[in-house]
Amino acid sequence: MPLDAEIAARLKRGGDGLVPAIVQQHDTGEVLMLAWMDDEALHRTLTTGRATYWSRSRQEYWVKGDTSGHVQYVREVALDCDGDTLLLRVDQVGAACHTGDRTCFDADRLPAVQGAAPEHAEP
Amino acid sequence: MPLDAEIAARLKRGGDGLVPAIVQQHDTGEVLMLAWMDDEALHRTLTTGRATYWSRSRQEYWVKGDTSGHVQYVREVALDCDGDTLLLRVDQVGAACHTGDRTCFDADRLPAVQGAAPEHAEP
Predict the structure, then answer these.
(1) A16-26: buried (b, 16+ CB within 10 Å) or exposed (e) per residue?
(2) What does the pLDDT read at residue A118?
(3) Do A115 and B74 touch (CB under 8 A)?
(4) Which of left, alpha, beta for B94 (phi over 0: left; psi -120 to 50: alpha)?
């Protein structure tokens, strides 16, 4: 059974047929990782409750946690205003990152100037 | 002045030269939107404190809020473990979404089976 036709009609895929999926821990709000889905990966994610992606490096479906035990249980899935990005809210078991870090964004902070609203701006 | 060479060497760009940037409200954890950066957009973002993207539809740089007033002041920028995704933590003025919604993921929740850990699983 393929992805629901009404959802498929709203998805805007990249040239490779994939849509980026942002993965967020549902209760803490941590952004855990970004992965990629085709229609079938989204279908499996929506119908099984287990986050399932398309691995661009291995060119195969990938049920998060099947190898590592670091399962992502799906809580919510949202499509963005343009239909070209997904947001998964999940319950992450253990580390989301293959390095063992909780998130894929823990290790490499870039030096950035902090922006701020003008202090004496008129409303 | 181009993007710092050491950062540029770690960036893994897609075929179009772009890297996805997840944008998160720094204090609430809300995922606001996903946008795209090339090296120059990342350089401007890191050095000006204003989130700056490459618009794939308009094929031009886009300083978030220049037209709408809905500025994103940069608080932190992180690169993920693979060097192919950015996470921006920002202070978002007003709505992040062009529809007027606070985030680009507010409007379109997809029907999803919720996953759950087995209730009687052994530890």
Answers:
(1) eebbbbbbbbe
(2) 77
(3) yes
(4) left
The secondary structure element, H or E, covering residue B39 is helix B39-48
Torsion sign across C-alpha atoms A15, B81, B30, B109: positive
- Give the pLDDT of residue A13: 97
Which is it for strands B31-37 and A60-63: parallel, antiparallel or unpaired? unpaired
For B23-79, write each residue's pLDDT tens digit.
Answer: 999 999 999 999 999 999 999 999 999 999 999 999 999 999 999 999 999 999 999
A112 and B31: CB-CB below 8 Å? no
pLDDT tens-digit map of A49-90 = 999 999 999 999 999 999 999 999 999 999 999 999 999 999
Alpha carbon distance A25, A88 (integer Å): 8
Q: Report the chain B residue with the minimal C-alpha distance to residue A100.
A: B81
Average confidence score pLDDT of chain A: 95
DSSP E strand stretches across A56-103: 60-63, 72-79, 86-92
**Could you tell me if A89 and A75 are in contact, meaning their C-beta atoms sit under 8 angstroms apart?**
yes
Residues of B in contact with A112 (CB under 8 A): 45-46, 49, 74, 76-77
H or E element that contains B5:
helix B5-10
- 3-state SS assignment for residue B36: strand
What is the pairing mode between strands A19-25 and B108-110?
Answer: unpaired
Calpha distance A6→A4 (Å, rounded): 6
pTM > 0.90: yes or no: yes
| Residue whose C-alpha is closest to residue B86's, from B9, B17, B18 | B18
